[in-house]
Amino acid sequence: MNAPRALRAPPRVGMISLGCAKALVDSERILSALRARGYAFAADYAGADVVIVNTCGFLDSARAESLEAIADAMAAHGRVVVTGCLAHEAPSLLERFPGLVAVTAPAQTDDALAQVVAAVEAAAPRPAEPFLDLVPADVRLTPGHYAFLKIAEGCNHRCSFCIIPRLRGRLVSRRPDAILKEAERRVANGVRELIVISQDTSAYGRDLGHARFGGRRAHITDLARALGELGVWVRLHYVYPYPHVDELVALMAEGLILPYLDIPFQHASPRILRTMRRPADEMRTLERIRAWRAQVPDLVIRSTFIVGFPGETEDDFRHLLDWVAEAGIDRAGCFAFEAVEGADASALPGAVPEEVKEERRQRFMAHAAAVSAARLKTRIGRVLEVIVDEVDGRGGADARSKGDSPGVDGRVLLRRARHARPGDILSVRIEDADAHDLYGVPC
Question: What is the Cα–Cα distance from 308 to 434, expressed in whole angstroms?
């Protein structure tokens, strides 16, 4: 009888994923495709046969972080594949790092994904192994109880400060039947929260003419309703305030999707908004927010803002602070304007000094924290549903309310939660609050 044949160890791939959740989904696609081809994964440079760096280039600071990551990977390992948003700089990257295996486009399409896989296979070929050539489950880079669900790529807007259309192209929506099939698979595998992402979630399906596929209309309202019928939390990110957002708020009132909107308002001064090429009727926006909250009192709105935009005066900035308070923005992020290469705003006159930008950013964040603290204080004494993210083994747990998205918002810190497990959805009584977090105990 012949001795059992020893299986050969598969090549190992290391991954550095930078940037937003949309890039993280691309990284999951890459790793899933590689695992389907029999590759294993390494947690550090020493254990890897090839390293992938998924880059971000939205801001100059993000570009610098990506370049530093590539340099570190090249110095520590030397066999490196670069993908992601910096792919549009391929010639200069190959000149700066002549030993790179390849520079490929973001893995947002099947063709681009195939380029990444081909580059890895060229750098670290995997011998055929019939005993292992089976397609496994998807690779996930998030905890098991929540998952990002990317519904589209690209953007048709031409905001003067943004280069996303140049990096990611125009809007390309996925078919609704394909999205729902992925969502159903995630839920079957234990996901309790689906976080819907794209560059412009509200525009989903516009490039498809809102046609029907498998009986489903390619429209964000129809998609959100179908996702809500899966019986899990559904959270929407990057929602541009088109008129049909009112339809999404109606779904929140029905309890089908979470009462949470992530709307990148960017500013409130009409003059600055026009220069940004953003909707500039901030009073109309306030009216809509009031109407939404009349329909869904627990609605949480998070947003991002830019301060120090070219031409921004102290009056413009104060107008923004007043608007954030009047709108009751629950969660706010703020960036000091960066003159990004390729963005039209970089050539605008009236540059704001760096020290003024930073001073305004700090003032904004302090102001936003005060607004957040006032809104969170109203939840003290209430019973809220939360989803558990982590437990400490000593009776404490980190959780999130329906108004908190992972990694960007606050937490609900629990005591007397010894029996809680990640992914559990609990009813908790809120005992206290600060500027960002809530404190509670399971009922």
Answer: 28
